[in-house]
Design a protein that fits this description.
Layout (H helix, E strand, L loop, with lengths): L3 H15 L4 H23 L32
Length: about 80
Amino acid sequence: MFGLSELAILLIVVLVVFGARKLPELARNAGRAARILRSEARAAKEPHDKPGAPGDSGALEGRIVEGPGGPSGAPRP
């Protein structure tokens, strides 16, 4: 795969391109994206029950389902 020298060069290039101030934010966003991807992959593997079963989102029945940001869709602080 990658050796130590390639990883060091890659790290230097990332530092130059993004700057040291943006790296924590980029890492945080990458972690969030990985977490979302993992949860969606798990949800896709679960068997789908018939509508109205416990745990059903109700989207097929026309009910409004609030996301993590509440009714406005804005993220919570």
